[in-house]
Amino acid sequence: xxxxxxxxxxxxxxxDRPTAIKHxxxxxxxxxxxxxxxxxxxxxxxxxxxxxxPEQAMQLIARMFPPNVAYAPTLVRPxxxxxxxxxxxSIMGVAIALPISFLAATNTTPxxxxxxxxxxxxxxxxxxxxxxxxxxxxxxLGPGLLAGVLAIGLRSIGFVGKLFFExxxxxxxxxxxxxxxxxxxxxxxxxxxxxxxxxxxxVGVSVFRWDINIRESTVLGLVGAGGIGVQLSxxxxxxxxxxxxxxxxxxxxxxxxxxxxxAKARKExx
Amino acid sequence: xxxxxxxxxxxxxxxxxxxxxxxxxxxxxxxxxxxIALSTLNVNWARVATGLTRGTRLLSGLLQPDFMSxxxxxxxxxxxxxxxxxxxxxxxxxxxxPVGFGAARNIAPTPIYLFCRALITISRTFQEVxxxxxxxxxxxxxxxxxxxxxxxxxxGFLSKLLAEDIEEINAGQAEAIRATxxxxxxxxxxxxxxxxMPRLVGLSVYRFDINLRESAVVGVVGAGGIGATLQxxFNRYEFDTAGAxxxxxxxxxxxxxxxxxxxxxxxx
Amino acid sequence: MLRLENLDxxxxxxxxxxxxxxxxxxxxxxxxLIGPSGAGKSTLIRCINRLVEPTSGHxxxxxxxxxxxxxxxxxxxxxKIGMIFQxxxxxxxxxxxxxVLSGQLGYVNxxxxxxxxxxxxxxxxxxxxxxxxxxxxxxDKRADALSGGQxxxxxxxxxxxxxxxxxxxxxxTASLDPKTSRQxxxxxxELARERDLSVIINIHDVPLAQMFAQRxxxxxxxxxxxxxxxxxxTPDVLTQIYGEEDWTTDADSxxxxxxxxxxxxxKTPMTSTLSDVIPGxxx
Lengths: 270, 268, 283
What we know:
The complex is a heterotrimer of chains A (about 270), B (about 270) and C (about 280).
Chain A: E1 3-6, E2 9-12, H1 17-43, H2 47-51, H3 53-64, H4 76-104, H5 112-127, H6 130-141, H7 145-169, H8 173-181, H9 186-217, H10 229-237, H11 241-269
Antiparallel strand pairs in A: 1-2
Helix pairs in contact in A: 4-5, 4-7, 4-9, 5-7, 6-7, 7-9, 8-9, 9-11, 10-11
Chain B: H1 20-39, H2 45-63, H3 71-102, H4 110-125, H5 128-139, H6 143-167, H7 171-179, H8 184-215, H9 226-235, H10 239-267
Helix pairs in contact in B: 2-10, 3-6, 3-8, 3-9, 4-6, 5-6, 6-8, 7-8, 8-10, 9-10
Chain C: E1 2-10, E2 16-25, E3 30-34, H1 41-48, E4 56-61, E5 64-65, H2 71-78, E6 81-84, H3 96-101, H4 110-114, H5 120-132, H6 148-161, E7 166-170, H7 178-195, E8 198-202, H8 206-212, E9 215-220, E10 223-228, H9 235-242, H10 257-266
Parallel strand pairs in C: 3-8, 3-9, 6-7, 7-8
Antiparallel strand pairs in C: 1-2, 1-4, 4-5, 9-10
């Protein structure tokens, strides 16, 4: 009871006593956990470096400006590669996610066992970041664009697949029933009753993922999987901060552009 | 039966793009792009062939993971990843609340609005790893750089969604609080925060999820966490250890994801 | 001719929606199935083309027992059974023509249907039907651009493009205004007469059923409680179907019919406190 009586006066409190204690305990435990975690991180930190980090930052900025404009033309090819990694990877991811999502949706899956396998594939793909996929693929295939494309593709399967199968599960059941009632085969029910309903979502999700993939593919070069990350890595290791700044500006523009394209495309569909 | 349509009329579905020039142009353009893009891949097939044997080794490493040989490193890496995630999420959420309020057009003064929006844009545009590089350069190697990276990206993610939420709140409720003569801070805590709170909690839990996944990555550039251990394992071609780490990451992500879905259901 | 023999449907939840129904519908008859919500009307007609799998009993369409067919044979049988739905059940993002043509899916292979390459005779017939239901210029409009009555006309054209022997109609007017409802019912019964179709219509609206059907079957809790001519619906019979109510006063509005049916479905037959009214039964 939030309202209690004390000496004949009604006292209002936000929570009654047991709930208040429970809340208080939760906050206490939460705070302790965070402090403990902080302790671990603090122990692993060399505080002397941190102390002069403002100075470092100022130096870094000073060395970054002015950006090395003359370096920009050599970035055209890496940018083109980055775009290709993102686009081809997205296409690959969507192509593989399509059948998997139909196997994973409760209303289109042929069998519960098939569904769990499809879900497992989606979860595995989602759990592993594209940079780790790239790490793995570079170790297997050697450095190059191919590793990058495959890394982006493998990571996209899970993201796209999850949103796809959720869309399939949310469709309107009645048109599917109607198409079934005409004596259509299962594939025809899929193509007439289900696909038209989910297509706009599918396109929107794919474009959205492409936009994310542009951003992701800018760093794949750090582990050798091609794209502008290769140049970034080289510039950082060579302490050529003017170049680094140019690369940042170029990446910034590219990501803004892809975001704009993606937003415009998605607006067009709806 | 009346039959005015006696003459046979052909029918084909209306095209998606009505203008034939655009339709064919876009189609050919897409095919042309694919051909050019695929040709830039420069696949070294001999290298791929040798890679395939490594691929099978990796697969067998996943099936027979070796948790023991480098258990010390794995344990330390996982613990670091988890602690980084906790601290970064809390830090990020605490900072994103004021930034989110500042980035909502309907309640923030223009200079503050522009500043917060710029912060959000920068945080969202650059991939985590790029930001991690900068923090490592400034702070030195170690998990603190990772915490700051994840915290910074959390701000971009959360503040943007929070700001959008605030821009869409029911103005009537805030109005009613204002009508009682409440101060700005009181309007925020009584009129605005209760409306966006459930979603904020849900998003924070979701972000915890993402941060855990990302914490496995920033280690690649020296910002702490399990990523460094994983990279070492790959560089030494110790695929059974790498397999073990990957399995742990997948398991951890699954557990947090299930927990996060559970919490979000309870909150909303 | 359609004959139902001891048809029974029990859902996994334990609800027995249809209890041993026996019915014979001769060629060319329009039969209205009335009864409160939850009486099993929808389940019964969905059992006939096995959108809902019956638990036991037989369904004879001419000489074929539909309950014994395997998947492929069932698909072939469904081609000859048209169905019309309450919420029209059109695929909203397809055009009117594509929706109508989907009535012939059972006759073309997958790739033909994927590329929308239907035989010219089918397309001619589809245009004829669109003209017949009054949607001449709508062929390439998207289905979600149409009004409720227009959508139901597309649904009718789709069902008739199957060139069916039997038409199953599930609450065709429940989502339409009174005037459109009468137009749609008239269209369905006219087309049935032109083609000598057997029709089963689930319908809430008793006066509408009396106006357009030749025979009425009353269903209550999964059982047939009335089977006879339209003028046999005396107050006693209506009480038996829907529960206690003063059937002699004229109700002035259709708007309450949904609530009334829902209330009727939840009330036991002995309850006499039904306050809502089944729309006008004096005719």
